[in-house]
């Protein structure tokens, strides 16, 4: 599967609705310290690809992640497990975090919507 470059289109954050969200909560991101290590699905983690870690979503699930503070969103594939810090629901790759403009803050309140269930 190839993720199209349709990512990070801003949506007016005042018009956002979480009615159809799978989950809403805090996301963080991971990068250099895990770059080129194996992920839970056996892929090599590449901090420059659009991927994410989630505790329970099936590996291979494609999700849309929206930063609720600025309306920017990105589509990522879940290929790892985590985050392992209490209170966080998703770890994004560095590239995905850049797309939704959360790198400087380190965390962001996000909404997860399922785009495509795992095979």
Describe, in short, the structure shown.
By secondary structure, the chain is mainly beta. The chain contains one helix and six strands; from the N terminus they run βββββαβ. It has a six-stranded mixed barrel with strand order 1-5-2-4-3-6.
Task: Write up this protein.
The chain has one helix and six strands; from the N terminus they run βββββαβ. It has a six-stranded mixed β-barrel. Helix content is 5%, strand content 34%. The protein is mainly beta. The protein has a single domain (20-116), classed as RlpA-like domain (Barwin-like endoglucanases, Beta Barrel). It has one helix at 94-99, and strands spanning 23-30, 51-53, 62-67, 73-80, 88-93, 107-116. The chain starts with 22 loop residues before the first strand and ends with a strand. The model is unreliable at 1-6 (pLDDT under 50).
